[in-house]
Amino acid sequence: MKLCLDAREAARSISVTSTEIKNNVLLRIAELLNKERNAIKSANDQDLQQARESGLDRVLVERLIFSDEKIDGRIRSLKKIAELPDPIGQYDEFITRPNGLKVGRMRIPLGVILMIYEARPHVTVNAAGFCIKSGNAVILKGGSEVLETNKILGDIIRNALEEYQLPANTVQVISSSDRTLVQDLLKQDDYIDLVIPRGGEGLIRYVNENSRIPVIKHFKGVCHCYVEASADTKSALDIVMDSKMLMPEVCNALETLLIERDAAQSFLPALKDEAERVHLKLRACPESRKIIDAEEATEEDWRTEYLDTVLSVKIVKDIDDAINHIEKYGSHHTDTIVTRNISSAEKFVQSVDSSVVLVNASTMFNDGEELGLGAEIGISTEKLHARGPMGLKELTSYKFVIYGQGHCKKTK
Amino acid sequence: MKLCLDAREAARSISVTSTEIKNNVLLRIAELLNKERNAIKSANDQDLQQARESGLDRVLVERLIFSDEKIDGRIRSLKKIAELPDPIGQYDEFITRPNGLKVGRMRIPLGVILMIYEARPHVTVNAAGFCIKSGNAVILKGGSEVLETNKILGDIIRNALEEYQLPANTVQVISSSDRTLVQDLLKQDDYIDLVIPRGGEGLIRYVNENSRIPVIKHFKGVCHCYVEASADTKSALDIVMDSKMLMPEVCNALETLLIERDAAQSFLPALKDEAERVHLKLRACPESRKIIDAEEATEEDWRTEYLDTVLSVKIVKDIDDAINHIEKYGSHHTDTIVTRNISSAEKFVQSVDSSVVLVNASTMFNDGEELGLGAEIGISTEKLHARGPMGLKELTSYKFVIYGQGHCKKTK
Question: Cβ of B103 and A372 within 8 Å?
Fold first, then answer.
């Protein structure tokens, strides 16, 4: 596929481009977004009109809007990515071996990244910014409902690249809605190094099942909070409500509360009061329902990512019971324990096999910026390569670089 | 598949086993190898007899031999793995954020690893040792020509695990030669986290094309040495001969020599003399053949991994020409430059996209032990996860571990 060959060729150039020029390109894109905001909004209006005419649900149409506020958010984000340290060319370690060989692992770009995502124009700008800064070429396939918006954003990005004598094909925005094109792209493992799908579970499963290229992803976030009897009730309640209610629609929002049996009598009524106050629905296990009034949770509830103001609640015998529940029903995304017991904290950290495990903190802290990555392009629950929130470094690989002074093994 | 469920269950136990117990198991396997060496050799004899009877080529039969010397090698290797630092539970970094959150990336095992390899019994012991030490469960599928040898080695390993109350299924040796079993295993992406194929290019391509699980691999090593005109002739010749002749059969052995035009007149006759002395065959480009007598290299030669005492030789215009040749014909494995020019060294390091790039050193130094990994289980030319030689740490993943003191995002 020509588009892949073009990406591969562009990848060679951007991989050796200086930090300064990459930053200049990012800042230039930010400038152009500001300068061209009327054209962007008018392209976005076309998409919105088309979406409304095709009878798209009003809530979904609202997601497509690329307003002044969203444009300003992208401008800020690009400036921020420009300020982040460039991982490329940095050494993870650099040692001198006993024989005098100098051995380092140097960070290099992955090469060509394919992003497949739903109709969210801000991802187009964000992914382009991340990939340029990390020295990768990227192919962007966004939802076809925002074709016109993505097209003008792509033009702006490509113009900025060309102004700095970089190949426009560093960023290719696919403006076809042909689904066979995606199928073909997912087979190009000779040309594409990584696929990052972002969107609903259906989209991610489709990409995963049809790709011959490594995919970094998370399907869903069924996140847990385990409240131990030793926990401070007020602190536990704060963490539960922050994890659940701050942004119920995000993947690291809390979905299931596990309470140690000895804490249930005191904790559940307090939870119930707070839930009523903020209109949070509870679905509880039979034992919990003897203490508080709540809808009964079914087996299905324990596996459900509500992404809504609903919380499933279960009483567990002890920490082992909690860990086993998380292993059985969880999604290896984000899980937290509230405890005052140091050995429980250690056991939870050791045994819960999730990409982010917290002690006495809200699941909302699973966020690239909060964890010191500067920003994030996605969250992975994979074991290979990157895990948890992914920043610039997670879009890189490394090579061993070895400096000798005529070293031969035979005569070392 | 029951075998995968068993592996997954064993993986949970071995993942939280202490370093001390894991080391004890390794040392116990070493003891048992010594104690049971007669039984091992007699099982191996059965395999050898079967192989001879089935008319297997004599050279191939020799590869199957698991002699006292090889058993001793494995005993030493297990002791060495026991001495290496345990990556599990170590933190790559541990920072305190401005809000007081403590954030670390803790090394964890990958989970279940599937090794598919040819009829080399030493891999059975080595892979088991590596996986146990790194807290992983492993399914070992070796070549069917050494079924009996692998079976007894598997029994020894499993006995040692059980002596320390660890699940025997931490290491499962497949003693079936049923190829559909391998096909089925390669589809178990819900249970197996990583496949490492080791063997010829055919085996590796088969695994890669049939797997739904991430595969870490290198297909082949078409390794280059670029000799610049600035190089010291003696040093360049030493590096070329060491890279080519020390172990011509290994993947990081040199296959193609690229010489800068200005160095050809002085370097090629010296190379020719040395090649004759050590019975190295040269296949050269037309321009080289005006200087020395050699067989003509075809287009195919530039892509060939000889694994033999043959070297292809090509004159290039300059370093850019050399880098382009390596990009076009190379396999991203191991490439070295011989130069006295610091800017050429930097350019080569930046631009050659191989897993190991050397300056003034033999390609033989692409070796886990030489590069400070302690030992290696394989070499990867992948961009995702691990690249270059893979040691214990490369068989691990990480999780983010976050310690708060009641941290909520809303009120941070």
Answer: yes
Scanning every residue of chain B, which has its alpha carbon at the shortest distance from the alpha carbon of A355? B399
Q: What is the pLDDT of residues A260-301, one digit of tens each?
A: 999 999 999 999 999 999 999 999 999 999 999 999 999 999
Q: State pTM to two decimals.
A: 0.92
Written out in words, the top-level CATH class of the domain with range A2-217+385-403 is: alpha beta
With an 8 Å Cβ cutoff, are B384 and A365 in contact?
Answer: no
| Residues facing residue A313 across a β-bridge | A257, A284
B12: which chain A residues are within 8 Å (Cβ-Cβ)? 327
For A133-181, the pLDDT digits (tens) are 999 999 999 999 999 999 999 999 999 999 999 999 999 999 877 888 9
CB contact under 8 Å between B400 and A355, yes or no, is yes
Q: Are A28 and A160 in contact (CB under 8 A)?
A: yes
The residue written with tokens 């187009």 in the block is A124
Domains of chain A: which residue ranges? 2-217+385-403, 223-365
Separation between Cα atoms, residue A70 and residue A354, nearest integer Å: 32
Fold of domain A223-365: Aldehyde Dehydrogenase; Chain A, domain 2 (3.40.309)
pLDDT in tens, B67-79: 999 999 999 999 9
Q: Do A404 and B349 touch (CB under 8 A)?
A: no
- Contact across the interface for A406 and B101, Cβ inside 8 Å: no
Q: Which CATH code of 3.40.50.261, 3.40.605.10, 3.40.50.720, 3.40.50.2300 fits the domain covering B2-217+392-403? A: 3.40.605.10
Pick B408's closest partner by Cβ from A97, A362, A407: A362
Strand partners, A281: A310
Q: What is the pLDDT of residue B411?
A: 65
